[in-house]
C-alpha cells in the first residue's frame, strides 16, 4: 500500500498518514517509528552554511584527520610539492605546531577529488599515538613527534602488501592494515621499528562496517562509527539485524525474517545499545530498552514537507548522530533577452545537486541542517549515480573526550570543521579538488 493511502488506528480515532506525519507510531512487532521532527524544511530550502574562516590559504588537506582527547586535530597537508604535518586547535583552527615532511612522494600526489567507485578514501591515514603521530599510505609511513621536533620515515619491504588505510593503536604501537585478502596487518612501534611478521587484526581494532551491500558511498575505518561487534549465531541468516525492523514478512512462517530492508551497516561508537543502521532510506536508532526507533524522512505524502535526500555517509558522537546527504533535481533556465537585443533566446536544461550535513537526535528531532555545497551536477562518469553521489563528504567526529566537539566534513583536498551543537562553521583548510576528467 502506498504511503499516501496508509491508515493508522490510534485509540478510537482513524487518521490519515498525512495528518499523523509527526506522530510516533507503535507497530505490533514492538518497535516505534516516527517522522523526522523539529525545524524541518524542504530539501531545497535548507540554509547554506556560512563561510568558514580559512586556515593556511593555499594548502590542501591530504589525510584522514587525527583527533585527540585534548582537543586537537592534526593531519598531513600539501603546500604545492611540499608536505607538512600540522596540529590545530579544534575550537578555533589556530595552528599549534607544524613539521615539514619534505617533498610529497609521486605516488601520494592527488590532483582529483572523489574517484569513480571510491568508497574508502584513497588518502593517507593519520592517527595519534603516545607522543607521536602516524601518517601512512600505500607503502610509506611517517612518525611525527608531538610538537613537530622530529620526523621519521620508512617504506614497507617488498614482501609486505600495500597498506589499506586501516590503522589502530595497540598497546602504544600502531597496527597497519595490509591488502593481503586475509584482513591482516603489520605492527609499527612508536619508535619506528617495523615488525618482520604479519599479524591478524587485533580484537579491539574494529571494521568501519560491512560495506558489501551498503548504500553508503564513502566510509573510513578511522571514523568513530564502526561495525557493531556483537557476535551472532552462525545459523542466524539475519546476521544480527532485528527481523522485526529489517525482515520481510513470510507467509509460510507467519513472521518477519531476514534483513532485506537493512543491508546498510549496523554501527556504533561504543556500547551496542548505541547502534544505528539504515532501513532503506530511513534511520533506525537502538534504544536503551533494546527496542528500535525508526525515523522516517518526510516526503510530500507525509505532510507536505519533502526532505528525503539520500544518506551517503554518517558518523556517531554519542549521543549525537550526523548524516551527509545529497539530492538532485532537474532545472530549466532561460535568458529572456530584451526586445531590442540581438541576443538569441536560450533555454537550458541542467541538473542541480545539493549536499546537506544534518544532526539528528536519537529521539527523532532534527537539531540542525546545513547545505555545504549546491551547484550543477559534475560529469565524472557515464553512470548517473556516480555523477549524483560525487558531491559528498566523509564525516569524522572529534575524539569522544575532546572539550571542543566538532564534526569534520572531509573531501580530498579539504577539511571543514563544524560545531556539533549548532552547525556553525569553525574553520576550513583547503578546498575540494577538481572532479576527475571523463
What does this entry look like structurally?
With 438 residues, this protein is mainly β. It is 2% helix and 42% strand. The protein has two helices and 33 strands. The strands form eight sheets. A seven-stranded mixed sheet has the order 3-4-25-24-23-22-19, with no helix packed on it. Strands 5-33-32-31-30 form a five-stranded mixed sheet, with no helix packed on it. Strands 6, 7, 8, 9 and 10 form a five-stranded antiparallel sheet that branches. Strand 22 (266-268) and strand 23 form a beta hairpin. The protein starts with 6 loop residues before the first strand and ends in a 9-residue tail after the last strand. The model is unreliable at 1-24 (pLDDT under 50). Residues 1-20 form the signal peptide. This is PQQ-like domain-containing protein. Keywords: Signal.
How are the secondary structure elements laid out?
Blueprint: E1 7-10, E2 13-16, E3 24-26, E4 32-35, E5 54-55, E6 60-61, E7 66-67, E8 72-79, E9 82-89, E10 95-103, E11 125-129, E12 132-137, E13 140-145, E14 151-155, E15 163-170, E16 173-178, E17 184-188, E18 199-200, E19 226-227, H1 243-246, E20 248-250, E21 255-257, E22 266-268, E23 276-279, E24 282-286, E25 292-296, E26 310-317, E27 320-334, E28 347-360, E29 366-376, H2 384-388, E30 394-397, E31 406-411, E32 414-419, E33 425-429
Parallel strand pairs: 4-25, 5-33
Antiparallel strand pairs: 1-2, 3-4, 6-8, 7-8, 8-9, 9-10, 11-12, 12-13, 13-14, 15-16, 16-17, 17-18, 19-22, 20-21, 22-23, 23-24, 24-25, 26-27, 27-28, 28-29, 30-31, 31-32, 32-33
Amino acid at each position: 500500500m502506498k504511503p499516501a493511502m496508509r491508515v493508522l488506528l490510534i485509540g478510537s480515532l482513524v487518521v490519515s498518514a498525512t495528518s499523523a506525519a509527526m506522530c510516533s507510531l507503535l507497530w505490533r512487532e514492538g518497535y516505534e517509528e516516527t517522522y523526522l521532527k523539529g525545524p524541518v524544511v524542504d530539501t531545497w530550502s535548507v540554509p547554506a552554511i556560512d563561510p568558514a574562516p580559512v586556515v593556511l590559504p593555499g594548502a590542501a588537506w591530504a589525510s584522514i584527520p587525527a583527533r585527540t582527547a585534548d582537543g586537537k586535530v592534526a593531519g598531513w597537508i600539501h603546500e604545492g610539492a611540499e608536505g607538512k604535518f600540522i596540529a590545530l586547535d579544534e575550537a578555533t583552527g589556530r595552528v599549534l605546531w607544524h613539521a615539514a615532511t619534505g617533498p610529497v612522494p609521486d605516488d601520494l600526489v592527488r590532483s582529483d577529488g572523489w574517484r569513480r567507485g571510491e568508497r574508502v578514501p584513497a588518502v593517507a591515514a593519520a592517527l595519534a599515538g603516545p607522543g607521536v603521530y602516524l601518517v601512512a599510505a600505500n607503502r610509506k609511513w611517517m612518525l611525527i613527534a608531538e610538537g613537530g621536533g622530529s620526523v621519521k620515515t620508512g617504506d614497507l619491504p617488498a614482501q609486505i602488501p600495500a597498506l589499506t588505510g586501516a590503522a589502530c593503536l595497540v598497546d602504544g604501537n600502531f597496527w597497519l592494515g595490509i591488502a593481503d585478502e586475509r584482513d591482516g596487518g603489520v605492527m609499527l612501534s612508536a619508535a619506528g621499528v617495523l615488525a618482520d611478521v604479519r599479524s591478524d587484526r587485533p580484537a579491539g581494532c574494529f571494521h568501519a562496517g560491512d560495506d558489501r551491500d551498503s548504500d553508503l558511498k564513502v566510509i573510513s575505518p578511522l571514523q568513530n562509527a564502526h561495525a557493531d561487534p556483537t557476535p551472532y549465531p552462525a545459523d542466524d541468516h539475519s546476521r544480527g539485524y532485528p527481523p522485526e525492523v529489517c525482515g520481510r514478512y513470510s507467509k509460510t512462517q507467519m513472521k518477519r525474517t531476514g534483513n532485506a530492508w537493512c543491508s546498510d551497516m549496523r554501527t556504533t561508537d561504543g556500547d551496542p545499545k548505541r547502534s544505528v543502521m539504515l532501513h532503506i532510506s530511513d534511520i533506525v536508532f537502538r534504544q536503551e530498552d533494546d527496542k528500535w526507533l525508526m525515523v522516517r524522512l518526510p516526503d510530500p505524502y507525509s505532510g507536505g514537507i519533502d526532505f528525503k535526500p539520500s544518506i551517503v555517509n554518517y558518523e556517531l558522537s554519542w549521543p549525537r548522530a550526523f548524516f551527509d546527504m545529497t539530492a538532485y533535481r532537474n532545472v530549466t533556465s532561460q535568458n529572456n533577452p530584451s526586445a531590442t537585443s540581438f541576443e538569441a533566446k536560450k533555454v537550458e536544461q541542467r541538473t542541480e545537486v545539493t549536499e546537506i550535513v544534518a544532526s539528528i537526535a536519537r529521539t527523532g528531532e532534527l537539531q540542525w541542517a546545513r547545505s555545504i555545497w549546491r551547484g550543477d551536477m559534475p560529469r565524472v562518469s557515464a553512470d548517473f549515480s556516480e555523477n549524483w553521489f560525487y558531491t559528498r563528504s566523509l564525516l569524522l567526529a572529534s575524539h569522544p573526550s575532546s572539550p571542543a566537539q566538532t564534526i569534520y566534513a572531509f573531501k580530498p583536498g579539504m577539511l571543514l570543521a563544524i560545531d556539533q551543537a549548532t552547525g556553525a562553521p569553525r574553520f576550513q583548510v583547503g578546498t575540494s579538488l577538481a572532479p576527475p576528467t571523463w
